Every structure is written in C-alpha cells, then in structure tokens.
Amino acid sequence: MHLRNTVVGLALAGALLSGCSSEGAAPSASSKDASSDAAASAAKSDVLTARQAVMALKKYVPELQLVRDYTEADDPNHLLGRPGGYTSKAAFSDGRVPSEDIEGLDKDAAERGGSVEVFKTSEEAKARAKYIATIAESLPGATEYHYIAGGILVRVSRLLTPTQAADYEEGARHF
Q1: How many CB atoms lie within 10 A of CB 141?
Q2: CA nearest 40: which of 3, 85, 6?
Q3: CA dihedral 100, 58, 65, 9 (to 10 degrees)
Q4: For residue 46, what pLDDT is reported?
Q5: What's the CA gap between 117 and 135, in Å, rounded?
Q6: pLDDT above 90 as % of the chain
Q7: Counting runs of H as helices and runs of E as strands, what totals does the chain give?
Q8: Tell me: the pLDDT tens digits for 29-65?
Q9: Which of 81, 134, 144, 167 has the fewest C-beta atoms under 10 angstroms from its C-beta?
C-alpha cells in the first residue's frame, strides 16, 4: 500500500510540475526538470489507463460517454502495445457535438468526441500529437484539439467549439 501511495504521490507531483500543454506549446523545462517530468510521466502512465482518464474527464465534461476501450486486436491505429505506441487507448463521445455533423460515422469515430492515448513518457505523447498535427496540415478534416498531461494525450473533436474543448484541457490538468 505504501508503494502505491508513493506512485500516486509521484504522479500528482508530476502533474503539478508538468502541467498541461497543447500540442503547439514550447517546452520550458530545463534538462533536469525534463528528466523529472519523464519519471513522473512514467509513474502516471502506470497509474492511469486510458479508460480511467476518460472517466476522470467526465467530472469536467458531463456530456462525455466512454464508447470503447481498445485492445491490441481492435486498435484502429495498430499502435497499442507496440514499440513507440501507446499503452492504452479509449474512445469517447460528447453529447455537445451536433448530431447532423456525425451522421453515418462509426460509433468510436474521433469526430463524435475524441480519444485518450496513454504513453510511457510525455515525449512519446508529444511526438504523437506532433505527428497528428502534421497530417492535419494537409487534411483540414483531421484537425483536432490536443491536450497533453505527462504521458497522456487527450484528442478532442474539432466539431466542438474552443470553449467546449477547454473543458477537456481543464480536466487533463487534474490527471
């Protein structure tokens, strides 16, 4: 029990130190702080799964509903558990997304709400967000909001307003 409390304490300390940043924010930590951030990120990833992070976001976004907790067999990106990939992924819907904008889309489509991807380190989460943003430069329909807290990447539908998406940013600050 003491070890679990220590891991949870490290995770909370890491959350306070690393804060939350959008994918475009420049890092401001020194190299010493960055190594502390990486250790805290690894501890947080051990503590929170994507499913748990989605459920934690529900406190800040009551309209959120967990849609799918992916496995290695059904991960659409084929990244779950693979080298450089995430350790868990879950999709969610958001009742504030206009229904006419999502007609005909799969139940777990990102446009319906978004997803949470958990990585071993914050660097891996940031790299994934950067990769997605690069794709969105040539495919405007792939644009989405990104909020990173340690090794957790929260991907939010572009169909939400910036004010609505900010609820996810607030929730991610409390991982």
Answers
A1: 8
A2: 6
A3: 130
A4: 52
A5: 17
A6: 70
A7: 5, 6
A8: 323 333 344 444 444 445 799 999 999 999 999 999 9
A9: 134
By three-state DSSP, how is residue 7 classified?
helix
Tell me the C-alpha distance between 167 and 164, whole Å. Answer: 6
Tracing tokens 């991807």 back to the chain, one arrives at: 117
CA angle, 32 as apex, 84 and 24 as ends, to 5°? 55
Q: What's this model's pTM, rounded to 2 decimal places?
A: 0.73
The residues that bridge with 66 in the sheet, in sequence order, are: 92
- Residue 144 CA to residue 140 CA, distance in Å, equals 9
Q: Which residues of 94-133 are buried (b: 16+ CB within 10 A; e: fewer)?
A: bebbeeeebeeeeebbbbbbbbbbbbbbbebbbebbeebb
With CA atoms as reference, report the closest residue to 84 among 46, 121, 137.
Answer: 121
